């Protein structure tokens, strides 16, 4: 009886540890590139074919998922694998040898890390979109936020990104430009976490990107503020030099910077480069 | 007549040893890999920076508080589960142990809907003027939630193993239930209580997902060591690795203490039988 209990206990414990480990390691995986070279299609089509993996900043998830589908539809025989994560996570993954063919960063700093490391040709990156900050508040705006300065009021629970991540760096820039010093209740490590605190109503306001407010739909209300123009985030994209499908990688970059790509990005709230 | 000498033990099959070595390497190698990345020249400045010290101090304080809460709530839970018999007990036990197998983020979301501003209990707390969101209290709650099952599990197992013989004798000699609990039951399972508490402490110290979801991240208030490591990784991988090493060292010490307590538990059990 007792041995049975402890055996169950041991199983549970093992399961718990395994589960925790799995939960920890799940982020950033799932980037396997399936060998999608279909030999039958090689004979006739001189056009693009094969498979590439695009590493894109988390804020591009909606737009790049749509763009990859449209690219595949326009170029039968091609497969675009997508991997979304924070830009600095993606840089780490690429530096450590992850199989990427294209990198789309949410800021120029992270792109510079890869050009400095020689993994991307210094002349290759093209700016394809911009993004600015916007105030996100829960529906009905319970704290009555109307301006950037309102966020500094002591009774307002404001959540921002930590200065270490791009959205936090933009927040610091706006603070310095306006002379308004925020006293946030939390400095999150990603836009998603800021948005989560606002949608759940824990925070009265959060500073995220315009595109995040649009993507969140009815869950939050967006409040534009003119000072956001002080910190415009530029998104560069470039093929990885070592890509085995350089032609396809370049074609995808051209697609994103072309009219279809720009249209999809504009619909999502991104600014023109 | 069987020989007095014990039959020579055949020994562990070679293949078992080989697999065991592979398993051990799987656990140890990543730790070694991490140590090789530590920037030793900068190690002391990195772990003694203000944000690092704040994070370590906060982690130790909240983990200790959470452990105390685990003991306070967990001992009665273990006693009830081990010594009573009632309808639905098995279901209750499974539910109580649920945080063991639940991804921590899920725990964080559940806590948010309970203690959050718009949560089940949060609104009542708010009416009393107590705000839990974004406070150190929220960190302690998150840690207690995930660590409690470890204490209940190890203590309940020990209670079942020691049996009720001594308690029954004590009761026939006229001791009241509380006296039996205090003078007989708890001293018998003290080693298991200690090792259970140490395990809870370790789990609380490593807690990340629930804290991030439920409590937020602010230096000195809610940003514990795991959250600080996660954030530092964005800009300063050296600091992240150095802090990770600190966490590993603390964890190793904790495991050693738990093991020690477990050993003495074993001795005691053998001596009493």
Automatic annotation (TrEMBL), chain A:
What is the scientific name of the source organism?
Answer: Herbiconiux daphne
Record's protein name? Molybdate ABC transporter substrate-binding protein
InterPro entries in UniProt: ModA, ModA/WtpA
Provide this UniProt record's keywords sorted from A to Z: Metal-binding, Signal
By sequence similarity, the record places it as follows: Belongs to the bacterial solute-binding protein ModA family.
Any Pfam family from its record, for instance, is SBP_bac_11
**Residues in the signal sequence:** 1-22
From TrEMBL, chain B:
Task: Name the domain of life.
Answer: Bacteria
Instruction: State the UniProt keywords alphabetically.
Output: Cell membrane, Membrane, Molybdenum, Transmembrane, Transmembrane helix, Transport
Task: Supply the InterPro entries for this chain.
Answer: MetI-like, MetI-like_sf, ModB_ABC, NifC_ABC_porter
Transmembrane annotation, as ranges: 12-35, 55-82, 94-115, 127-155, 184-205, 239-259
User: How does the record classify its membrane topology?
Assistant: Multi-pass membrane protein
Ribonucleoprotein is among the record's keywords? no
Protein name, UniProt field: Molybdenum transport system permease
Q: What is the recorded function of this protein according to its Swiss-Prot or TrEMBL entry?
A: Part of the binding-protein-dependent transport system for molybdenum; probably responsible for the translocation of the substrate across the membrane.
Q: Could you confirm whether the keyword S-adenosyl-L-methionine appears in this record?
A: no
Q: Which residues form the ABC transmembrane type-1 domain?
A: 56-258
Where in or outside the cell it occurs: the entry states: Cell membrane
Principal cellular location given in the protein's record: membrane
Q: Which family is this sequence assigned to?
A: Belongs to the binding-protein-dependent transport system permease family. CysTW subfamily.
